[in-house]
Amino acid sequence: MARVVACSDCWPLTGGASEFNVEAATVRDLIRGLDARFPGLGDFVDRRMAMAIDGEIHQDAWFSPIEPDSEVFLFPKIGGG
Fold first, then answer.
1. Overall domain count for the chain
2. What is the number of other CB atoms lying within 10 angstroms of the CB of residue 60?
3. Would you tell me how many other CB atoms lie within 10 Å of the CB of residue 73?
4. Which among 25, 6, 1, 26 is positioned nearest to 16, based on CA atoms?
5. Residue 61 is part of a domain; what is its CATH number?
6. Residues of the chain with pLDDT under 50
C-alpha cells in the first residue's frame, strides 16, 4: 500500500490524520481510495491538490503509476497568473 502524507488543508476531511496507507496502482485509484476512506477527500484532492509521488511532482495526472511502496505527498496546487 502507498504511504500518503497529507498537508494541513486536508485534515478537516481526514479527521486530523496526516499520514495513512491507501491501496492504489494509479493516481485515479488513489483519488477513489481517498474518497472511499474519507468522503469528500478524493474530490478535494482532484480539484485542489498536487502530489509528489516518490519525489516527482504530478498535477492532473490520473494515470500516473503508484507502486505499492510509493510515498505520496499531497499539497496545494501552485497558482499563477
1. 1
2. 10
3. 17
4. 6
5. 3.10.20.30
6. none
* pLDDT value of residue 11: 97
Residue 37 to residue 35: CA distance in whole angstroms: 5
Quote the domain boundaries for residue 32.
2-76
On whether the CB atoms of residues 66 and 53 are closer than 8 A, the answer is yes
Q: What was the pLDDT predicted at 60?
A: 74
| Listed residue (77, 61, 66) closest to 23, CA to CA | 66
The CA distances from residue 19 to 22, 24, 33, 63, 81, in Å, are 10, 15, 14, 23, 32
Please report, as a single letter, which amino acid is at residue 37. R
Cβ–Cβ < 8 Å for 58, 72: no
Is residue 81 assigned to a domain?
A: no
Is residue 25 one of the residues assigned to a domain?
yes
Record the pTM.
Answer: 0.89
